[in-house]
Design brief:
heterotrimer, A alpha/beta, B alpha+beta, C mainly alpha, B: alpha+beta, five-stranded antiparallel sheet, elongated, C: mainly alpha, Amino acid/polyamine transporter I, 2 strands
């Protein structure tokens, strides 16, 4: 401590500046010489992973295909626009972690997982011993963030990464946006993140729906996301595949339907309702909300499902809901369609014994004891349960045109 | 000048003989070529002698006739009577040195002082007293807009190097006897006149006491500029943060006085020292009070933002790109990656080089004459920066970061706070390059501790932020409408009766 | 009154928030929901009630003994030797708490952000900053922490608000599949950490300014409510996002922040919350180190406040590097053993003192009326510093 100086002022709050300065210099020297800059790595010494595809090898190990971003500045002279800004590294290992570490051997830069967009899992990984344990590395590692999208591919996942993207930089980005926007606008698929999968695996009914990536049947060079795969996260087994048409209604039942189109056949009383040759009108759903209430009497479970939908007219072909009665008729048509489709979907779910609508979870939260009693055989109970569906449709407007079809 | 024995004092007294006086003056000013001696005679037959001594470089031009004019003025009524030294003496003794610009001098040291202050000192024969008339005139700078503090709206009156003029300009704004001015003189060779002003009942008495007790003892030292006083009385010489403010604007000085501050003026320099200055006041300019509330508040917020950017932006960039790339949004990251590919230097080194280069440019720009200055800065910044990017020595991202930082530090209205930022930026960059986000956090915390423990003239430096006084926040990040300010003391920073020392 | 050591009432209240919420906000509700699942927030609500009780006792003692510190009070109640024993017990508790807080900071950085850096770097630098801050005195600490706390609360609230699209209310329903026991265990854990640590404030309360209008008690209750609300709110919100996975993700609030994605621009903001949360822990460590220092100063009747600061910090640094064998050891000690110790030793001592004082006050009421009030005499300034 220094004494007040020549002016009687207690400067520097009582510190002896010379001593403090010397101490500071020692500290700086010590810190600089001590710090081996452990966590420090230049941006360009890292390889940024855009996507990862996991496949199983024949002998039980894993084959990892990692899609990296290639910075364009590395080309000397003019940048050739035909060069792809990405490349793939394939590694193998007995565990996934081992395979990831071997990437550095192939690439020379440390893989940076934090900007990964999509995690592709090959079909056979899911069908075999299970998926959730394999994902453990990704959940546990601090670099991989929980928001990365997970998708299951038809066939092996590795080749999908080689597909050329249409607009985006990489195919991975394209898949991710397909998942997002597809969910939002068509509801024919959805997006699920790693965190969500993890949470689902801890729930009472550990079933999760994962988007399904398939090659375009018309053009093998393209691929898209359609449909959903239902996976039991606890055992990691694949349970069923829901085609894209039906996915809409599954999502609606699960309260994950954001917006989409309902196709209403003109001849709703006739026998033929499906198929492209039947004239159909469309109703654009803007909002939908579903409530599922499981009611248990003894051993019988009844699911009371009530769906309420709000939307506008998309296309008109045969109806003219311009008058009040006309509007009423149109709404009835939509409701009937919804009722039919929802019932068919429930039938399908019960046939496959998959409780993706989480009726079990709702029961667990409502009546704990009952759930404890019923849970051991929930699959069969779900398959045998009754259901009552109520639908309510509200029409907001008829679009810009009047509510009559163009003649 | 400190005469201790009566003997010396006695020899300081003038003699009745003109020749002795004249000889003494010639001895004292031997070698001073600009001191002139003009003998003259008066009386009916011009039998009486007088001599006027003055420093020709300090006084008005018409001095050779001064003697005549003086005597003419004096004796206009008695022109027909006999002029004799006795009469002169009688006149002056009876009337006294009645005009404000003349004094009667009895000692040599007084005469020397007066001559050096621009007086004409006239000795008459047979009289041991000399008369001094003020005739000071030295070319001075015109009152103009202060260069460092321009404004769009508001007065453009800046201080000059004349102490009296400056005090006068401030007096003109606060016409109250409560505005006190106290003078002191410092230095045995420079004899600089220092003045400090405050408004009674606006200034906090404890602060005034502190200030006075600290200013004590500066008398023997040569004070050439206001910053000497700042160094003398400040609480922490080694802190990068300035504890007092400077201004050249008289309206700012007047406003500060109303706020209860003490201002110090030193002759021969236009810089006014405003003490004490709180950290939050460095973000305010006088123009804030002349523009409308909403705009002024937004500009204040902009300045606070500029402060943060100027201090932290390079460090954040280094920390994020080397330690935590997962925290950069993907699209931005890919853009940075593209530009950084092929750069030979690590991010910290690159940042350091660019920052130092920018500082060099700044320093050079200050010293260049005006017509050349702007061209060189344009050349330096644009051409060399562009060339560096093309040669792949620097990445465009880094150039943007450095440029933004530089611009932000210019947005701080007070120059000495801007210097603080420039100084502090480098240790923060170093610490963030060693330990990333954690290092930056430690650096930030240490700076904050230092700031909070700093005192300025006994007040906590971060007053109204820490200790938090919500009532005073109306002038910190926003500027509340003037109806809150119209009564003195404004802001109540220093004059809150509820305050304890926390 | 205006001496160098006293702080204003609202500053004391702010210090209370810092020391209860400071490090808790980083971890809650992970350890609680690990046992109590969805009912974690109920445990925390009850723990808050318990905290109010402890605070009431501490404030009662403060008023009854007219602002004396722990040492003085125990000397008066139990005699000199017992007082020394109590002081030693509190010193031991603080010597555990301070390194534990810093080890928490270390583990945050080595898990989340900078895996490769060895722990001692974080320990050393953090303690350096903490000691530096303590050396500046309580007033500087109080002033600074008001600012930091405002920042902490603001950032936390922003995160909780931005996460609104992620909330699924169904996860917040307190389903208790294993009965009430887990909730009680959760209550036990959170009763010890952080609410039980309010007993340390008996050391700090003497520093509040005496001659100030406004009620200390009211402000302290208010600030504890702020902590209570923040902790319950953050645990509720985390539960609503992660559901059954809440007990698995360490550093709940940080992971919550990493899930936020609003309008494509606001993403990856977990860096800010990370730094801010760590600042909370730093604040708590500073306050506790100050208390530890004060205990020694009062015990050994030292003239120079800063004499033992460096040795104490050195001891804490070494403890932080050696005390815990690993992650699970840390969890065990901090979430099981520490609450036990705080509740049985700290809280019990304070409760006993409260009870005795209450009884004595009732009996001795008339003896004080003859003008000589032994409680207000001399020595008051000495304990206040």
């Amino acid at each position: 401590m220094s004494e007040p100086d020549y002016n009687g002022i207690d400067r520097e709050g009582g510190y002896d500046v010379k001593k403090a300065l010397l101490t500071g210099i020692y500290l700086v020297i010590a810190t600089v010489s001590m710090s081996g800059c452990w966590s420090q790595l230049e941006l360009n010494d890292r390889g940024f992973v855009q996507a990862v595809a996991i496949d199983k090898k024949e002998d039980g190990g894993f084959r990892l295909s990692t899609l990296f971003y290639k910075p364009s500045g590395s080309e000397q002279g003019s940048k050739s626009s035909s060069a792809m800004p990405y490349f793939t590294v394939v590694t193998e290992g007995e565990t996934i972690f081992e395979a990831t570490r071997d990437i550095t051997l192939a690439l020379g830069r440390k893989a940076q997982w934090s900007h990964m967009r999509v995690l592709l899992i090959g079909e056979e990984v899911v069908g075999g011993k299970g998926m959730s344990k394999e994902l453990d590395y990704f959940i546990r590692d601090h670099e991989v963030r929980g928001v990365v999208s997970v998708m299951i591919t038809a066939g092996k996942a590795g080749p999908y990464l080689k597909i050329k993207p249409i607009i985006e930089n990489t195919f991975a980005q394209q898949l991710k946006t397909i998942g997002e926007q597809g969910h939002r606008f068509t509801a024919k698929t959805m997006q699920v993140s790693l965190t969500e999968l993890h949470i689902r695996s801890l729930e009472q009914v550990p079933l999760s729906m994962v988007p399904y990536v398939r090659l375009d049947p018309l053009d093998k060079k393209k691929a898209g996301v359609s449909g959903l795969v239902v996976v039991d996260m606890k055992s990691g087994m694949r349970k069923a595949v829901i085609p894209s048409e039906q996915s809409r209604y599954v999502l609606m039942l699960n309260n994950q339907f954001e917006s989409g189109i309902l196709k209403i056949p003109c001849d709703s009383d006739g026998k033929r309702r499906k198929g492209a040759s039947v004239a159909k009108e469309s109703f654009e759903v803007v909002r939908s909300h579903t409530k599922i209430n499981p009611i248990v009497h003894g051993d019988r479970v009844t699911l009371h499902i009530s769906i309420s939908v709000e939307g506008t007219i998309g296309e008109l072909k045969c109806s003219s809901p311009i008058s009040e009665s006309g509007e009423g008729q149109f709404i009835v048509k939509v409701e009937q369609l919804l009722l039919r489709e929802a019932s068919e979907t429930m039938e399908m779910l019960q046939k496959e014994r998959i409780d993706v609508i989480d009726a079990g979870g709702r029961l667990y939260r409502k009546q704990l004891k009952t759930w404890k009693r019923l849970s051991p055989e929930w699959e069969s109970r779900f398959a045998a349960s009754d259901y009552r569906i109520r639908v309510k449709v509200k029409m907001m407007n008829s679009g810009v045109g009047a509510a009559v079809p163009l003649s | 000048m400190k005469t201790t024995t009566g003997e010396i004092r006695e020899s300081n007294r003038m003699s009745k003989h003109l020749e002795d006086n004249r000889k003494k003056m010639e001895e004292t000013f031997a070698g001073c070529g600009d001191i002139e001696f003009h003998p003259s005679s008066f009386g009916d037959n011009f039998e009486y002698k007088a001599v006027s001594v003055f420093c020709s470089t300090l006084i008005k031009d018409k001095t050779p006739t001064f003697m005549h004019d003086t005597l003419n003025d004096l004796f206009r009524k008695n022109v027909e009577e006999d002029l004799s030294p006795e009469r002169v003496r009688q006149f002056f003794i009876k009337h006294g040195a009645s005009t404000s610009i003349s004094t009667m001098l009895t000692r040599y040291d007084q005469a020397v002082d007066c001559i050096l202050n621009g007086y004409v000192v006239i000795w008459f024969d047979h009289w041991d007293t000399a008369i001094g008339y003020e005739a000071f005139q030295v070319a001075k700078r015109e009152v103009g807009e202060p260069i460092g503090e321009p404004s769009v709206q508001g007065p453009r009156e800046g201080t000059t190097e004349r102490l009296a003029d400056n005090i006068g300009m401030i007096r003109e704004r606060l016409k109250t006897p409560r505005l006190k001015v106290e003078y002191l003189v410092a230095g045995s060779v420079s004899k600089t006149k220092i003045a400090y002003m405050y408004v009674d009942q606006a200034v906090k008495p404890a602060t005034l006491e502190q200030f006075r007790s600290r200013l004590n003892g500066i008398d023997p030292y040569e004070v050439l500029e206001t910053s000497y006083i700042e160094d003398w009385i400040e609480d922490s010489t080694y802190s990068p943060f300035p504890q007092y403010m400077y201004t050249e604007r008289t309206d700012f000085a007047a406003a500060s006085l109303l706020d209860g501050k003490i201002i110090v003026l030193v002759s021969n320099t236009p810089m006014i020292l405003v003490c004490p200055a709180l950290f939050v006041e460095f973000f305010a300019t006088s123009e804030d009070y002349y523009t409308r509330t909403i705009f002024a508040s937004l500009i204040r917020l902009l300045r606070v933002w500029a402060f943060i950017v100027a201090l932290l932006l390079p460090s954040i960039y280094i920390a994020l790109s080397t330690f935590h790339p997962e925290l950069i949004p993907t699209v931005l990251l890919l853009a940075i990656l593209d530009t950084r590919e092929g750069i030979p230097f690590p991010a910290f080194f690159e940042a350091l080089v660019m920052e130092i280069f920018f500082e060099l440019l700044r320093e050079a720009g200050i010293r260049l004459p005006r017509p050349v200055g702007s061209a060189v800065s344009i050349v330096g910044a644009l051409v060399i920066g562009q060339a560096a990017i093309q040669a792949k020595i620097a990445s465009p991202m880094m150039v943007i970061v450095v440029a933004l930082t530089g611009i932000a530090s210019f947005a701080i209205p007070h120059y000495n706070m801007g210097i603080a930022l420039r100084v502090l930026r480098f240790p923060l960059m170093m610490v963030s390059s060693l330990l990333g986000g954690f290092g930056l956090m430690i650096g930030f915390l240490l700076t904050l501790v230092h700031l909070t423990s700093l005192n300025t003239l006994g007040e906590p430096y971060m007053s109204s932020l820490a200790p938090l006084k919500l009532r005073n926040m109306r002038d910190v990040f926003i500027r509340a409408p003037l109806s809150y300010f119209l009564k003195s003391p404004r802001n109540r920073h220093l004059h809150d009766p509820r305050r304890s020392n926390s | 009154m205006n001496d160098k050591k006293s702080i204003l009432i609202y500053q004391m209240a702010v210090l209370l928030i810092c020391s209860t919420m400071g490090s808790a906000i980083v971890y809650i509700p992970n350890p609680i929901s690990y046992v109590a699942g969805n009912a974690a927030w109920i445990s925390l609500a009850f723990a808050y009630a318990f905290g109010m009780l402890v605070l009431a006792c501490v404030l009662f003692l403060h008023r009854a003994y007219d602002g004396r510190g722990l040492l003085e009070m125990s000397r008066l109640l139990f005699g000199k030797t017992a007082a020394v024993l109590i002081a030693v017990l509190f010193i031991l508790m603080l010597l555990f708490a301070i390194p534990a807080i810093v080890v928490g900071i270390n583990s945050f950085f080595t898990t989340i952000m900078m895996k490769e850096t060895p722990s001692f770097v974080f320990s050393f630098l953090t303690f350096f900053t903490v000691a530096f801050t303590v050396g500046k005195g309580l007033q500087v600490i109080a002033r600074m922490f008001v600012l930091l706390l405002v920042m902490l609360i603001a950032v936390t609230l922003v995160i909780l608000i931005l996460a609104i699209p992620l909330y699924k209310v169904k996860y917040a329903l307190p389903v208790m599949p294993n009965g009430v026991m887990p909730v009680l265990i959760g209550l036990f854990t959170s009763g010890g950490f952080p609410y039980g640590e309010i007993v340390f404030f008996t050391i700090l309360l003497p520093f509040s300014s005496r001659h100030e209008e406004g009620s200390l008690s009211k402000n302290m209750y208010l600030s504890l409510s702020v902590t209570g609300i923040m902790l319950v709110l953050s645990s509720l919100c985390t539960l609503m996002v992660f559901g059954p996975a809440t007990g698995i993700y360490k550093f709940s609030l940080y992971i919550l922040a990493s899930e936020i994605r609003v309008a494509d621009i606001i993403e990856r903001i977990e860096s800010i919350i990370g730094i801010v949360l760590i600042i909370g822990s730093y604040m708590k460590a500073t306050i506790y180190l100050f208390m530890l220092n004060q205990l020694f100063v009062q015990l050994l009747k030292l003239k120079n406040d800063r004499l033992l600061l460096t040795p104490l910090t050195g001891v804490c640094v070494l403890l932080s590097l050696t005390m815990f064998k690993g992650d699970s050891d840390f969890s065990q000690q901090v979430y099981v053993i520490w609450p036990l110790f705080v509740l049985t030793v700290g809280c019990l001592i304070v409760f006993t003192m409260t009870l005795l004082t209450f009884l004595r006050k009732g009996i001795k009421n008339d003896e004080d009326d003859n003008g000589r009030d032994p409680r207000i005499e001399s020595d008051v300034q000495a304990s206040g510093g």
